[in-house]
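chain below, 166 aa
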Amino acid sequence: MASSHTRLLPWLALAALVIVADQIAKYLIVAHYPPGGSTVVTGFFNIVRAHNTGAAFSFLAGASGWQRWFFVGLALAVSVFIVWLLRAHSAQKLFAFSLSLILGGALGNVLDRLQHGYVVDYLDFHWSWLAPLFYRGHFPAFNIADAAITVGAIGLIVDELRRLRR
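prediction:
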């Protein structure tokens, strides 16, 4: 039987893959776009360079700077807890997959906060039907790390619903 460390490695590798993909994309955006720059890709999607000093949906973005260290500390504490959960539950595939995505996403955004003081966002989706909710119908810009966290959260919900049905 494999040790808990051996069973943990694929999940940590998945988290590392998310971090690497996220950081490469952010590097390319910072290298090729000025702050606020954008490229129209389709009628509903743009590549942009946006800086988010807050959390999801720019929550606390207008704070005086303390939020940078708060979010770094919170993400690091959650990451330690996730690794502990992965060690204990590495055989639960959907649960571990979801946690790995959240871990990779959280650490990808932490690297931005440490390096820049903000998170680099670049995916901008917009539809006119979103206009009542978001300025000019633009959903808040996000990145690969944010998408991984979102998919991971959905996976945790699905995993729990499946567990409850059993």
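The chain has a mean pLDDT of 89. Residues 4-165 form one domain.
thats it, cya
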